[in-house]
Amino acid sequence: MNSFARPLRARIHLDAIRHNYDYAKQLAPHSKALAVVKANAYGHGAIAVAQALADRADGFAVACIDEAMELRESGITQPIVLLEGVFHPDELVVVDRAELSVVIHCQEQLDWLLVARPTRQLNCWIKIDSGMHRVGFAPAEFAAIYATLNACPHVGKLVAISHFARADELNLPNTAQQIAVFEQTLAGRFIPRSLANSAAILAYSNAHVEWTRPGLMLYGASPFAEAQPLATALQPAMTLESALISIRNLPAGAPVGYGGRFVCERPTRVGVVAIGYADGYPRHAPTGTPVAVNGLVTRLIGRVSMDMITVDLTDISEAQVGSPVELWGTTISAAAVAAASETLAYQLFTGIGRRVAYSYDE
Ligand SMILES: *Cc1c(COP(=O)(O)O)cnc(C)c1O
Q1: For position 169, which CATH number holds?
Q2: pTM for this structure?
Q3: Taking the mean position of all CA atoms in its chain, how far away is CA 65?
Q4: 21 in Cβ contact with 50 (< 8 Å)
Q5: Is the CB–ligand 1 distance for residue 223 below 6 Å?
């Protein structure tokens, strides 16, 4: 839905996404990189993002066949990997026709693949559970699965893939342990490998191997809660912006908004901004969450409503109705809003509401 009147919009900076993809490649210069564009490119618009990367991406990764078909129908010709494989054997017909690559993470998917009769060889990414314990074959099962797929005439290229549970937490032993389990599982077989999500691209160069899988970093947010030197070069790809729609002066002691949760500590100039939780602004953002008005950082006050939030304008005297407000972007990081709200930039980006208008800067 495009609204001409409501000032709320998500501005997407495609040059930042290109920069961040190139940066992922520069950090892992011997690896190819699958641009992860699942969940509508983390809320940035999958078609626009894939087209912006089409001249340079080695491949794309998505969560399901509808996401893959959207890319194919928009003219993307690179390899596209279905990160969870197929959910039903009938999907393999589409995989064949659209030349998609599938993850195989469980016995059912293996059985479906073996009895399929595709018109060409299907490329398979064999998922190994190196310690996350969500999906994937146990290390002890790998040798047999690999032999079976290798012997199957309609199976093409194979890649061994695994995913990290805690690469975003710096200085823990878990990621090194997962890498060790993965390498032991392959036992020196020559098979292309894929391990690194954004956090591991930034923090674990020994996980780069043949294929990386950058997701969040493409969109310019750091996956780490703490400062990490390499993450500072990422460029935010989304500016969520709106405007002040009302301003009032309240005396000390006046409650603001639902539940009277915030009570003015001093005479307060309160601004109302056109954005709320129905647009994807986190409902649990507390008083004090940073917001920028006219480029100046101030704070959210009171509860987030469905369509509006209230902000403190007491120290921003030049603010008036219509003044621009940045919820996150280059002045306020999505990570800071997420941290204040006890969520993640991943959820903020993917939670952008349907009535938010998008615009794209080249
Ligand atoms: C989503 C996903 C990624 C990307 O992770 P980021 O943390 O966003 O970089 C990589 N691999 C798999 C299997 C995924 O599901």
Answers
A1: 3.20.20.10
A2: 0.97
A3: 18
A4: no
A5: yes
